[in-house]
């Protein structure tokens, strides 16, 4: 019996030390759903190590700030969206290839308490890197129009600036033009509240187009499905970055398309902690079995 109590005490001490050692960081897994107009959406997956509440963050607290660094793991990937819209196909666009798109390094702040409101409010910047290749004439994509999702800012005199603009940050980025296909994207920072975009749609081929409002909402949940103490294992947050796209497809038009990146972050236990828990449970079971056999 003494051995059993000793092992239990040691296990609790080790678990407490493991929690303290991980005070400022937590492992996460996540997904990012990327949608553009009525093109098929794509989902990226990934994970890594997140810094919570700055350098003094404590696991189990309210989640106020969250920082993801590309060097420590991110949600990134590549996928292809085949074009099926008749108008778009008639103008030679066969597919969209999202090439190595996903999060770079950024920080969100003011997360706790924001989920209860439906008012739009920005919580931070995290650039989305990569290129969307607008594949012309063929899905093989030997010819394409590149839309770089994260670009340097340009100063008034035309020199390259030190900041960035693009998806997940804000600002206007463009691709094409000069009498051909043109895509302009007005980006915005991330929010944990409600974001809206406008999409121009038609009920059937040849019908007049009308404006439709698309809505996406962020949230923060603790393991017990509350909005408090999200900064612990099984805590989940959803963040939104909207973009308003204007394109001249069909050629000669000025159609609007809505775009969202919806990122879900799920905090998970550290691998080392899982190993400790597994070893502790196995040890307790072994000692308990020996006690019964005696």
Summed over residues and divided by their number, the pLDDT gives a mean of 78
Count of folded domains: 2
What is the number of strand segments?
19
Radius of gyration: 24 Å
Order of helices and strands: HEEEEHEEEEEEEEEEEEEEEH
Number of helices: 3
Poorly predicted segments: 4-23, 272-287
Percent in strands: over 45%
The largest β sheet comes out as:
11 strands, antiparallel
**Overall geometry:** globular
Query: What is the straight-line distance between the termini?
Result: 12 Å
Helix share, percent: 10-25%
Structural class: alpha+beta
What's the assembly state of these chains? single chain
Q: How would you describe this structure in keywords?
A:
16% helix; 3 helices; 2 domains; alpha+beta; globular
Please characterize this protein's 3D structure.
With 294 residues, the chain is α+β, with helices and mostly antiparallel strands. The chain folds into 2 domains: 1-22 and 271-294; 27-269, no CATH class. The protein is 16% helix and 47% strand. The chain is built from 3 helices and 19 strands. The strands form 4 sheets. Strands 1, 2, 3, 6, 7, 12, 13, 14, 17, 18 and 19 form an 11-stranded antiparallel β-sheet that branches. It has a 4-stranded antiparallel β-sheet with strand order 4-5-8-9. A hairpin with a 7-residue loop joins strand 8 (128-136) and strand 9 (144-148). The longest helix has 23 residues, at 271-293. The N and C termini lie close together (12 Å). Mean pLDDT is 78; it is low at 4-23 and 272-287.
């Amino acid at each position: 019996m003494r051995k059993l109590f000793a092992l239990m005490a040691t296990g609790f001490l080790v678990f407490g030390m493991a929690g303290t050692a991980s005070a400022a960081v937590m492992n996460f897994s996540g997904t990012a759903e990327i949608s553009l107009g009525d093109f098929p959406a794509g989902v990226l997956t990934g994970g890594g190590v997140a810094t919570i509440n700055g350098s003094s963050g404590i696991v189990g607290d309210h989640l106020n700030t969250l920082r993801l660094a590309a060097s420590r793991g991110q949600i990134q990937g590549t996928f292809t969206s085949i074009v099926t819209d008749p108008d778009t196909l008639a103008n030679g666009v066969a597919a969209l290839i999202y090439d190595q798109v996903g999060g770079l390094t950024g920080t969100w702040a003011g997360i706790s308490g924001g989920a209860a409101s439906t008012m739009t409010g920005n919580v931070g910047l995290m650039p989305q890197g990569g290129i969307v290749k607008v594949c012309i004439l063929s899905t093989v994509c030997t010819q394409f129009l590149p839309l770089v999702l994260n670009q340097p800012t340009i100063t008034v005199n035309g020199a390259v600036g030190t900041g960035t603009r693009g998806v997940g940050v804000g600002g206007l980025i463009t691709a094409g033009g000069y009498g051909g296909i043109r895509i302009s994207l007005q980006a915005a920072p991330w929010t944990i509240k409600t974001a809206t975009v406008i999409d121009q749609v038609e009920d059937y081929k040849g019908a007049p187009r009308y404006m439709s409002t698309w809505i996406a909402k962020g949230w923060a949940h603790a393991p017990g499905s509350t909005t408090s103490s999200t900064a612990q294992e099984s805590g989940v947050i959803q963040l939104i970055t909207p973009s308003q796209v204007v394109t001249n497809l069909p050629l000669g038009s000025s159609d609007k398309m809505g775009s969202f990146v919806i990122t879900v972050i799920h905090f998970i236990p550290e691998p080392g902690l899982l190993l400790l828990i597994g070893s502790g449970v196995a040890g307790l079971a072994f000692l308990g079995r020996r006690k019964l056999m005696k």
